[in-house]
Design goal:
With 168 residues, this protein is an alpha+beta fold. The chain contains five helices and six strands, in the order H-H-E-E-E-E-H-H-H-E-E. The protein has helices at residues 2-12, 16-26, 111-123, 133-141, 143-154, and strands at 34-39, 42-50, 62-67, 78-81, 158-159, 162-163. The strands form two sheets. Strands 1-2-3-4 form a four-stranded antiparallel sheet. The chain has a two-stranded antiparallel ribbon with strand order 5-6. Helix 4 (133-141) crosses helix 5. Residues 16-159 form the UBC core domain. It comes from Eeniella nana. The active site is at 97 (glycyl thioester intermediate). Belongs to the ubiquitin-conjugating enzyme family.
């Protein structure tokens, strides 16, 4: 009887969030331009790289950390870009503005959909829902300046007073 209790106790140590994150990652189908890395013993922390093959950010590699919260899937995972980049939907601290990570999150969404959503931000940046207002303003009003600023920033240069990380 004690052995059964010990066994059931260890099962209780695994959270619903852990089980769901592990399931999401096991069912992950590769997305071109996305690479994910995680320790199978800890699916709550994920590293992701995004390599867009077209658009403004083509030829660059961006790294993200994902922290899956303990109340996942009821709460969205949290993503942060590790490089300082010039992007309307990613601020200078790496926070990501993606509707499914905020207001449109639903427990039925998966990590796969979020990975695809982040890649989509690089292929089609959205000036209407910005975290970086300067980049959004350039994208919507001055597209040639936006293109030039993205290129400068990806090479590790400055845009205005801000220095960016080399990603290309």
């Amino acid at each position: 009887m004690q052995k059964a209790q010990k066994g059931s106790g260890s099962q209780q140590g695994v959270s619903v969030a852990f089980i769901r994150a592990k399931k999401d990652l096991q069912e992950y189908e590769e997305i071109p331009g996305i690479k994910i890395h995680y320790d199978t013993g800890n699916p709550m922390q994920i590293k992701m790289s995004v390599s867009p093959n077209e658009g403004y950010y083509s030829g660059a590699v961006f790294h993200f950390e994902c922290q899956v919260p303990e109340d996942y899937p009821n709460k969205a995972p949290e993503f942060r870009c590790l490089e300082r980049i010039y992007h309307p939907n990613i601020d200078l601290d790496g926070h990501v503005c993606l509707n499914i990570l905020r207001n449109d999150w639903k427990p039925t969404l998966t990590l796969q959909l979020v990975f695809a959503g982040i890649l989509h931000l690089f292929l089609h940046p959205n000036a209407n829902d910005p975290l970086n207002k300067d980049a959004a303003n350039d994208l919507s009003k001055y597209p040639q300046d936006f293109t030039r600023h993205v290129q400068q920033s990806m090479m590790g240069g400055y845009v205005g007073e801000e220095k960016f990380d080399r990603v290309a």
